[in-house]
């Protein structure tokens, strides 16, 4: 017979204690506090097997978010799968900027999220601006299914559309366009390490310098912005100057760049004159 305490002790030989508790809590449907207060509870055979499987998969490098099927973003819990990027804290900066952007008619603005993935950005903006018209696009049908699940579960109203960037939006203009596009260089060794090994490659890397998707988005954005409309993008730690130059070349003004909590310029954008 194996108790909660014994199962966690054994798992700690392979995983950090916090990850072991999270995985066991997922198996048992209990929060970490319950595990602590019920550490003498004996696991049944199914729970033991399920927990052992998750521990082995995590020890093999699979992301915890994929194993439990969720990740917190901007104070809400989002479903995730291997079809989408795992939401990251630095992307919350993009949402913060979008919420402060004075575009259109405020909460009734037309907003576009390019490459929505799990929908964490679009769903958050739709919930924070319930009167806005939010459109979210992604080239991946599997990603859109995850975004749809999150929108329905969290009660967000938005339009989801399968599109390779602006391809399925001819003639449409928006007051605010946001994107967290792929921006890692194709040969970057980080792609073969950590969680990135398991995330969708098409959502991570974009060309030799990582800027192919960003170039395409910035070049096409002016034709899809209303007068005074804004474009904001997340980008790599070493791409700030290149992105600034691309924004200027596209004719955008009032170019701004924002640092994340680590002090890295992570989000850049501008306004259509």
Domains, number: 2
Global shape: elongated
Spatial arrangement of strands, main beta sheet: 5-4-3-6-7-9-8
- Indicate the radius of gyration in whole angstroms: 21 Å
What is the H/E order? Answer: HHHHHEEHEHEHEEHEHEE
Q: Helix/strand/pairing class, anyone?
A: alpha/beta
Give a concise summary.
This protein has helices spanning 4-11, 17-28, 32-37, 45-59, 64-68, 92-100, 120-128, 141-154, 212-220, 240-249; strands spanning 70-73, 76-79, 110-114, 133-138, 159-162, 174-179, 225-234, 252-259, 265-272. The chain is of the alpha/beta class and 273 residues long.
Overview of the molecule:
By secondary structure, the protein is an alpha/beta fold. It folds into two domains: 4-60; 83-272, 3-Layer(aba) Sandwich (Rossmann fold), CATH 3.40.50. The chain has ten helices and nine strands. It has helices at residues 4-11, 17-28, 32-37, 45-59, 64-68, 92-100, 120-128, 141-154, 212-220, 240-249, and strands at 70-73, 76-79, 110-114, 133-138, 159-162, 174-179, 225-234, 252-259, 265-272. The strands form two sheets. Strands 5-4-3-6-7-9-8 form a seven-stranded mixed β-sheet, sandwiched between helices. Strands 1-2 form a two-stranded antiparallel ribbon. Strand 8 (252-259) and strand 9 (265-272) form a beta hairpin. The longest helix is centred in the first third of the chain and has 15 residues, at 45-59. The radius of gyration is 21 Å and the shape is elongated. The chain starts with a helix and ends with a strand. The mean pLDDT is 95.
């Amino acid at each position: 017979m194996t108790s909660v305490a014994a199962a966690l002790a054994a798992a700690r030989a392979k995983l950090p204690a916090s990850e072991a508790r999270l995985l066991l809590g997922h198996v048992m449907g209990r929060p970490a506090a319950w595990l602590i207060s019920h550490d003498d509870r004996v696991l049944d055979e199914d729970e033991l097997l399920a927990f052992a499987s998750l521990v082995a998969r995590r020890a093999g490098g699979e992301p915890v978010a994929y194993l439990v099927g969720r990740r917190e973003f901007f104070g809400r819990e989002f479903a995730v799968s291997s079809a989408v990027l795992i939401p990251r804290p630095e992307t919350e900066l993009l949402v913060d900027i979008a919420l402060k952007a004075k575009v259109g008619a405020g909460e009734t603005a037309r907003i576009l999220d390019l490459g929505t993935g799990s929908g964490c950005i679009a769903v958050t903006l739709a919930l924070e601006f319930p009167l806005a018209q939010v459109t979210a696009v992604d080239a991946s049908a599997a990603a859109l299914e995850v975004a749809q699940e999150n929108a329905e579960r969290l009660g967000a109203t938005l339009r989801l559309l399968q599109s390779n960037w602006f391809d399925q939006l001819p003639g449409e203009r928006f007051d605010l366009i946001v994107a967290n596009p792929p921006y890692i260089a194709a040969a970057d060794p980080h792609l073969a390490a950590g969680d990135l090994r398991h995330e969708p490659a098409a959502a991570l890397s974009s060309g030799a310098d990582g800027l192919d998707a960003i170039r395409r988005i910035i070049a096409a954005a002016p034709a899809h912005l209303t007068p005074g409309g804004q474009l904001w993008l997340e980008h790599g730690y070493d791409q700030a100057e290149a992105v600034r130059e691309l924004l200027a070349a596209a004719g955008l003004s009032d170019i701004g760049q924002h640092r994340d909590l680590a002090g890295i310029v992570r989000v850049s954008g501008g306004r259509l004159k």
